[in-house]
Amino acid sequence: MNMKGKQLTTSWGAPVGDNQHSITAGSRGPTLIQDVHLLEKLAHFNRERVPERVVHAKGAGAHGYFEVTNDVTAYTKADFLSEVGKKTPLFVRFSTVAGENGSADSVRDPRGFAIKFYTEEGNYDLVGNNTPVFFIRDAIKFPDFIHTQKRHPRTHLKDPIAVWDFWSLSPESLHQVTILMSDRGIPATYRHMHGFGSHTFKWVNNDGDGVWIKYHFKTEQGIKNLSEEVGTKIAGENPDHHTQDLFHAIEKGDYPAWKLYVQIMPLEDANTYRFDPFDVTKVWSQKDYPLIEVGRMVLNRNPENYFAEVEQATFSPGTLVPGIDVSPDKMLQGRLFAYHDAHRYRVGANHQALPINRAKNEVHNYQRDGQMRFDNNGGASIYYEPNSFQGPTESPENKQAPYTVSGVANSVGYDHQDHYTQAGDLYRLLSEEERIRLVKNIVDAMSPVENDEIKLRQIGHFYRADSEYGTRIAEGLGFQVPQKA
């Protein structure tokens, strides 16, 4: 980049005469408060860090495109999926979940897999993980769960007692815990892992007919994982390994790609399927609902500025477009509020107007003012609705499709309480070598827990999923399998 001839200026555009020496009274000083350039530099420096994300703080991002490869217009009227061959620009952010912004990439943790599609009808965010399920299924438990993944308020250390106490008292976590402790718990890179929408969403076509769907992004690079030992070694030698790998792969033209598939469930099946299809701790069998190809995602351009593009990128599952609606999934319902609210706190009320988040089509609404409003703030246009002055109005054809609800308003759980079948099925799919590594990872992770009651309670969950699974972990921890298990 040719920087010759560019003049250094202050933030208000005035030329800077000296950027190497502050203004002082004589050669020894003291420094004078009249050096407004110095004051501006120090004041801005103190404010360079915005609050980091509470979760998914450490991440990497890239630009790319999505190309439709299969006709799915029978299922959705979403414009960016409207014809085979159509390409839509996008931005992706990958991340770890629990660690801080300076933490290591190669830790055992789920990976965030967030995509912003810049469609012609507004932005669409698909905010998922590299796992098809999650630890909990009701958003009211999310703050408590994340507290267990963070630091103890007294020691300021990670606390395995809190982790396993919570999981042992939340048996719905068992399926995700099994995935996390398996080989897939530490992806080799961001390029060598699948991505999932995890939640159930609803697609609606031009006739108003709907289906329930689940998203699956299958990596074209193949699945590659790290052992616990290699992951720990890399964490010490190069904590930014995944970030570095993604950047250099794209920089040298080795563009990572994923094929997108969906599972499609008729609306009426939700009332009869053997698992609650809106429970994010469960998967749908691909034998029951096979994968249907949709398109291909390619990442082909690195950010020019990490802060402006990756750090200030904001994603929410509530960023929707016509043809894609939500489901009654209780975890998803909570995220619809929490994610937008997190961005208003972290980045600001006008975060959607930042270049990385701005829609490619024109935005027309009655939202005004707020900190850092850096466009013309709506100018002199009408600022309320309804109005008599041809201000923007709603388009009824784009209302979310209705669905029937019933029941008594009450604090209740899901009707289905089977937390063990799918976790056991997953264990039995593993090879003997994979089972050995899974059990070792769990035993190593639980060994620091100096509370036998917590260990025995968790062993009981493993045993209920599969008797061999529970027995191996019990033996690894020096316990007999509990009689009640």
Automatic annotation (TrEMBL):
Q: What is this protein called?
A: Catalase
Q: Which gene encodes it?
A: katA
The UniProt entry, under PANTHER family, shows:
CATALASE
Q: Name one GO molecular function term.
A: catalase activity
Name the domain of life this protein comes from: Bacteria
Keyword Transferase annotated: no
State its Enzyme Commission number(s). Answer: 1.11.1.6
Which Gene3D superfamilies does this entry report, sorted A to Z? Catalase core domain
Catalytic activity annotated for this protein? 2 H2O2 = O2 + 2 H2O
Q: Does the keyword Transferase apply?
A: no
**CDD domains given in the database record:** catalase_clade_3
User: What class does this enzyme belong to in the EC scheme?
Assistant: oxidoreductase
Region Disordered: which residues? 1-25
A Pfam match: Catalase-rel
Q: Which family does it belong to?
A: Belongs to the catalase family.
Q: Which InterPro entries match?
A: Catalase, Catalase_3, Catalase_AS, Catalase_clade1/3, Catalase_core, Catalase_haem_BS, Catalase_immune_responsive, Catalase_sf
UniProt-listed SMART domains: Catalase
Q: Which UniProt keywords apply?
A: Heme, Hydrogen peroxide, Iron, Metal-binding, Oxidoreductase, Peroxidase
Q: What's the source species for this entry?
A: Sutcliffiella rhizosphaerae
Task: Name all Catalase core domain ranges.
Answer: 9-393
